[in-house]
Amino acid sequence: MGIPVVEQKRCTGCRECLSVCEVNAIEIVNEKAVIDYSRCYSDTGRCRACIENCLQGAIFEMD
Ligand code: SF4
Ligand code: SF4
């Protein structure tokens, strides 16, 4: 499992990923999603919620 990375050009700032992140690891800064990796637990293999729920395909998984 990799970490979620936001592709800034695609992100519309819609906040959908904020609403699905259980640990509040995402905030919007200047209309773009920013992930706090100290909170995100994707590296445990337990979460891909933001990746799966971004309608713009703006979050991808990076190893
Ligand atoms: S769901 Fe996707 S487009 Fe919407 S704020 Fe999050 S990263 Fe950006
Ligand atoms: S992978 Fe899960 S915990 Fe990490 S930022 Fe996305 S929704 Fe939040």
Using DSSP, what is the number of strands?
A: 4
Q: Going across the biggest sheet, name each strand in turn.
A: 1-4
Question: Average pLDDT across residues?
Answer: 94
The top level CATH class name: Alpha Beta
Label the CATH architecture: 2-Layer Sandwich
What sequence of helices (H) and strands (E) makes up the elements?
Answer: EHEEHE
The shape is globular
- The stretches of 5 or more residues where confidence is low (pLDDT under 50) are none
Please give the radius of gyration in angstroms.
10 Å
The largest sheet, given as strand count, sense and whether it forms a barrel, is:
2 strands, antiparallel
Describe this structure in words.
The mean pLDDT is 94. The strands form two sheets. The protein has a two-stranded antiparallel ribbon. Strands 2-3 form a two-stranded antiparallel sheet. It has helices at residues 16-20, 49-53; strands spanning 3-6, 26-29, 32-35, 59-62. It starts with a strand and ends with a strand. The chain has one domain: Alpha-Beta Plaits, CATH 3.30.70. It has 63 residues and is an alpha+beta fold. Bound molecules: iron/sulfur cluster (2 copies).
